[in-house]
């Protein structure tokens, strides 16, 4: 009996991120797998709670738009995670470990931490 896989997809406001999600849905997803949509919003230097709340809300709304893509696949299980973090991938790496993800999917673009 195979274990359920957790596929972590990085949610960003770029078209390549949506393309990466669609690729994962068509090429990786098997029945019973869980798609975890992760959005990392940048840490603010100020401790302004309203600004943090606004960034978190925008990230959640963006993740919901990605969930709409997943909802087109029958029986797709989706979870949304929105975190404050860094721009060099440490937050993504720690989330992978935390949720025990088996796969990481992200769109590569010129502002990506992997591109640098």
Helix content: 25-40%
Number of helices: 3
Assign the CATH superfamily.
HUPs
Q: What's the count of strands?
A: 4
The helix/strand series, from N terminus to C terminus, equals EHEHEHE
CATH topology description: Rossmann fold
Low-confidence regions = none
Biggest sheet character: 4 strands, parallel
Strand order of the largest sheet: 3-2-1-4
* CATH C-level name: Alpha Beta
* Range of strand content: 15-25%
Q: How would you state the average pLDDT, rounded?
A: 89
Structural class: alpha/beta
Count of individual domains: 1
Overall shape: globular
Spatial extent as radius of gyration: 14 Å
CATH-defined architecture: 3-Layer(aba) Sandwich
What distance lies between the first and last C-alpha atoms, to the nearest angstrom? 40 Å
Defining key terms:
3 helices; 39% helix; Rossmann fold; 4-stranded parallel beta sheet; 116 residues
Report on the structure:
Residues 3-115 form the UspA domain. Pfam families: Usp. This is UspA domain-containing protein. The chain has 116 residues and is α/β, with parallel strands linked by helices. It has helices at residues 15-27, 49-70, 90-99, and strands at residues 6-10, 34-42, 77-85, 103-105. The relative contact order is 0.26. The chain has a four-stranded parallel beta sheet. It is built from three helices and four strands; from the N terminus they run βαβαβαβ. Helices cover 39% and strands 22% of the residues. The radius of gyration is 14 Å and the shape is globular. The chain has a single domain, classed as HUPs (Rossmann fold), CATH 3.40.50. The mean pLDDT is 89. It starts with 5 loop residues before the first strand and ends in an 11-residue tail after the last strand.
């Amino acid at each position: 009996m195979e274990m359920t896989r957790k596929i972590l997809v990085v949610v960003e406001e770029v078209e390549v991120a949506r393309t990466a999600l669609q690729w994962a849905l068509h090429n990786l997803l098997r029945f019973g797998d869980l798609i975890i949509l992760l959005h990392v919003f940048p840490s603010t230097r100020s401790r302004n709670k309203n600004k943090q709340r606004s960034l978190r809300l925008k990230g959640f709304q963006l993740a919901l738009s990605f969930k709409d893509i997943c909802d087109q696949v029958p029986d797709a299980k989706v979870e949304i995670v929105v975190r404050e973090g860094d721009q060099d991938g440490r937050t993504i790496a720690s989330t992978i470990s935390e949720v025990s993800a088996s796969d990481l999917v992200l769109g590569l673009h010129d502002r990506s931490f992997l591109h640098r």
